[in-house]
Amino acid sequence: MSEIEEIEKLLKPVAEQEKIEVVDVQYVKEDGDWIARIFIDNDHGITMSDCERVSHVFSNVLDKSDILKESYILEISSPGLNRVLKKEESFKRFIGSKVKIQTLKSINNQRNFLGELLDFSDGKVKINDATNGIVDINFLDIKKANIETDI
User: What pTM does this model have?
Assistant: First the structure.
């Protein structure tokens, strides 16, 4: 199990207790420092005070665990407008939204899709792609997906 998976597993019950969702976890080295970057959300949106509160809670849990061996900086933030879609629940929650999906392998000679998310069922994402119309994409074949907002 990777460090990211271990962090997600460790924080999931804590997040549920705090009535938030862990949307994404990144553990990266930047400019010589290890950064544990955790994106959180809930049905009402995330405020700065939510980030501050959750930062204290997650920091205590992570420090007591033995997952992260190196000294690290913890960053907590909302996923933003173009939030990543990684979990089946997220795809279901954002049906009707404009999404951008990159696949691991080509579907009809295409790997990048942009359009309305129509459905998620039986392990497949259905999108009304701007180029090819309605396309079914196997969830396991998705390399990256996020909400696409027009600003």
Answer: 0.81
